[in-house]
Structures are given as C-alpha cells and as structure tokens.
Amino acid sequence: MCFVLRIALALGIVLWGIRAEVTVYLEIDSPKLRLYRLAFLPVVPGDDLSKRAESLMERCLEISHLFEFMDRSKFPLIREPLSPERIDYKLWREMGAEFVLSTAISHEGGQLQLVLFFYDPVQGIPLISKVYRAQQGFLRQLVYKAVDDILQTLTGREGLFNSRIAFIRAQKEGFRELWLIRPDGGEEIPLVKGTICMSPSWSHDGRKVLYTSLRSRNPDLYVVDIFDGTVKLLSQNPGPNVSASWSPDGRWIALAMRGEKPGDTDLYLMSADGGSLKPLLVSPHVEVSPCWSPDGKRIAFVSDRTGTPQIYIYDLGSGKFSRLTNFGSYNAWPSWSPKGDWIAFSGRWQGQFKLFIIRPDGSDLRMITPYAGDHERPSWAPNGRHLVFSSNLKGKRLLYITTIQSGGPWVVTLSQGEDSQPAWSRLYQ
After folding, report:
1. Average pLDDT, whole number, for the chain?
2. Is 140 in the same domain as 175?
3. How far apart are alpha carbons 309 and 297 in whole angstroms?
4. What is residue 23's predicted lDDT score, i.e. its pLDDT?
5. Number of other CB atoms surrounding residue 282 within 10 Å
6. Domain that holds residue 12
C-alpha cells in the first residue's frame, strides 16, 4: 500500500525561518468572531505551479475562518515576494490591511521550495519569515505546513490541515468502505475496501484507525495501520463490537458490546492489543458511543435509560455517572474537544438533527449548525475549534466542516456515493 508512505515522506522541511518573538493571539473561542482583513498577495512568479499553490492556500485560509480577503485589484503590482526589507507597513495600514501574506514557490532538482512572509502592518512587525522545502509532488504538504504555521502564530494552537479525516463511503455495490481525506478535500484514499465498515476512530498518534467490519458476517472490531496497511482483528465476540474509542494514553479501548438483554449493549474496556476485556458499565439499557475526555478520567456515552437517547458522563475514578443533556428527545454521538472544554453532539431539533456544543458541566449550550438538513456525528479538529460532520444539506450525505462560531459550512467530499461517520486525526508533525 504505497499510498501510506506519502504521509511519512510528505512533511515539508524548514530550511530557515524567523518567527516574531511577540506572538499575536486572536480570540477564537467567543460565540461570535469577526474576520480580519488579509492582504493575500498573488503567489509569484505566477506560473501554473504558483496558481495551484495559490488556489490551495486560499482554500485553506478560507476554511480557517479567520480572514476576510481584500480586493486584489487595489494592490500594488508585486513581481517578487515582499521581503522584510521591501514592505511598506504604512501603505498597507492605509489600505486597511490587518495582515499581509506574500509567498513565492519554485521547483528545482526534484525539490519544491515555498517562501513565506507574513506581517502585521498594524504593529509594523514581521510575524513569519520561512522557507519550506519538500520533494517534488508534495505541494499540498508544503501549503498545509505553511497555513498551519500561520494559524499557530495567530492563535497559539495547533493548525488543522496537516491531518486526515477517516470516514465511511457508501458504494453502489452495497459496500461501506473506510476512506481517508484531507480537511481541504484533497487526497481521497481508500483504506479498507470490499466490505461493510463503520465507526472509525483514530489512535492518538494518528497512525492507526479502529473500525467495525462485517467481513466475517459479525460486527467485529479491527485496527488498520495507515502507514503499512496492516489490519489486525481485535475483538470478535458474538454480537456487536462497535463504537470503539482509544484512551488518550493508548492503553485501553472503550467499546460497546452485547448486553445482558437481547438488543441491549453495554460498555467495556479492552486492552489496546485486544488481550483483556473488563466491563465498564453494565445495565439493562442500551449504552453506546463512548468518548474519552482528553485527560482520560471521564467517558461521555449515550444511553436510553430514561426512555430516549441522551448523553451521560461516566467518572472512571468514582464509578459514578451523571446526565449531560437535559433537552430534546434524541441526543447522540458525543465528541470531546482536544482541550476538554467542550463536548460536541448531534441532537434532534424541530424534526432535524443539528450540531450542538456544551460544556462538560452541562452549561453554555450552543447550536452551531442552525441551517436546513440533518447534521450528524461531529468530530473535532486538532485545534479544538473546527469540526467535521456528515450532512444531507445538499441532498445526498457528504462531509462538511464548520467552527464553534458556525463558520462555513465548507464541503469536504463530493463523491458519487454518500459519506458519513467522519473522525478527525491528530496533527502530523
């Protein structure tokens, strides 16, 4: 499976770089966010490679949901990258720019080189001056790394583009295959084909994906290594082995398995190698969708113990649980943010499923997809601000990205089939 090698080889190498000692932090957690005026200069020298880099960078910057692009027709003519010796901060301030981005790309001897200058004209300081290099053919990785550096400089958090999204693609033949894609919609890659898969979940090092498959006619739990393509069977207990989720330390897997009563499922903890199994929460109800907190001390899950699916939080230390959602008739698919400050979920609202976020203590409930369609199975980006979800917003079910400020939505997949059950990986360093 040579495609997996691209992940390891494609990371850009920084040859030289300067980052400002004073990092600019933008407030990105408030319910409302204003966009900052960005002067994104055309990528030079303006050839086909430059245009492809420019289009990809603009797409990523748009999804970042931080910038308002200024009208380029009013920019001065730029024939080479705007280096620190050449920038006129006063000019850009008078034009209303809050940030200025100038880049150039070239290729020589089988190598790509991306030069990037990023400025704050309001304070009159350079924020990033870097050169990135990678093998020919890895343009996307150069752009992902550059944009992620911009986002980290402005927000103090990891970016999101040098990552992958695992998801399930329904094919005409009846298969539901496991695929990978980049957040901007690039590099669609089939990972497990020719079977029925469900419920993908990433390891915290971004190397492996848990998933349930019916390849042996029972919903068994497998793990696939995306770097070498190795598939391993972890659990084949009779009945469902579903909704698996890795613990933050990588030692345990929480999953739902057959319960005491027909049709019920209970929660169990399994060692990461599948060697040991112990009950976590056993009851005469349906318990599914376990999701770990980032510190590994709590697990959010879904239960119908009150008659309808609702979200609860189980404390591993005390063995006690409490109800999180107290509204609506159906709330499911919890996803804990990387910082631990939010839990995203899908809840039924006026006959359709919408995405919500809520604090782990049950406060500050917000709807973040207030538009038409059913929006399901949210999964957090590494930066704790963006989420991917599946939706029938445009008819058939596809993947979309939004933010906690309801940015977008930006469509990720445009397949002939239907795409669902997304899971966002950690950032690849």
Report:
1. 91
2. no
3. 23
4. 58
5. 13
6. 3-155
Written in H, E and C, the secondary structure of 162-177 is CCCEEEEEECCCCCEE
CA-wise closest residue to 209 among 257, 168, 159, 249: 168
Compute the distance between CA of residue 34 and CA of residue 245 in angstroms, rounded to an integer. 35
My answer on whether 220 and 364 are in the same domain is: yes
Please tell me the total count of domains within the chain: 2
Helix axes 139-155, 48-64, angle to 10 degrees: 40
Confidence (pLDDT) at 278: 94
Domain contains 58: yes
Q: Among 127, 155, 183, where does a domain finish?
A: 155
Q: What is the pTM of this model?
A: 0.93
What's the burial of 34, exposed, middle or buried (CB within 10 Å: 0-12/13-18/19+)?
Answer: exposed
Do 274 and 408 share a domain, yes or no? Answer: yes
328 and 399 within one domain:
yes
Cα–Cα distance for residue pair 208/229, rounded to 1 Å: 9
Question: What tens digit of pLDDT does each residue of 312-363 get?
Answer: 999 999 999 999 999 899 999 999 999 999 999 999 999 999 999 999 999 9
pLDDT for 172: 80
The C-alpha angle with vertex 119 and arms to 114 and 125, in degrees rounded to 5, equals 130
Residue range 360-382: average pLDDT? Answer: 96
CATH number of the domain within which 85 lies: 3.40.50.10070
pLDDT in tens, 130-142: 999 999 999 999 9
Which amino acid belongs to residue 205?
D
Residue 393 domain-assigned (yes or no): yes
The domain boundary, picked from 133, 155, 177, lies at 155
Residue 429 lies inside a defined structural domain of this protein: no
| 238, pLDDT greater than 80 | yes
| Whether residue 207 is found in the same domain as residue 356 | yes
* pLDDT, tens digit, 9 for 90 and up, residues 92-104: 999 999 999 999 9
> What does residue 256 show for φ and ψ, rounded to 5 degrees?
-105, 135
